[in-house]
Amino acid sequence: MTTGPGGIPAEPPRDRLIAKWVYFVEVASFTFQFHSLEQIQICLRFFREKLHPTSRRPDVRLEHYWQRWFEKLPQWLFEEPKRVKVVAALERAMNDFGERGVA
Known about the structure:
This protein is of the alpha+beta class.
């Protein structure tokens, strides 16, 4: 599967008359942009973990081709007080966006 910058799967051209949702979550002086509720869930699972294994892969030199989008986030977001705020904001976003049925 081909992916664009940030590891987001490349999509075929779409009909511009069909609405596509974009979700924004602002927390800790940072604004997250998501293209699906599934992306929010993936990011939430990632931030719920306090420790993450290395994402380095051998013999890969072009980082933007192998890093997942949430591995490129600023490191200060993973400091414990901010990480807790991010988890709370993403949980709130899932509740708010999910209740409105905009998935």
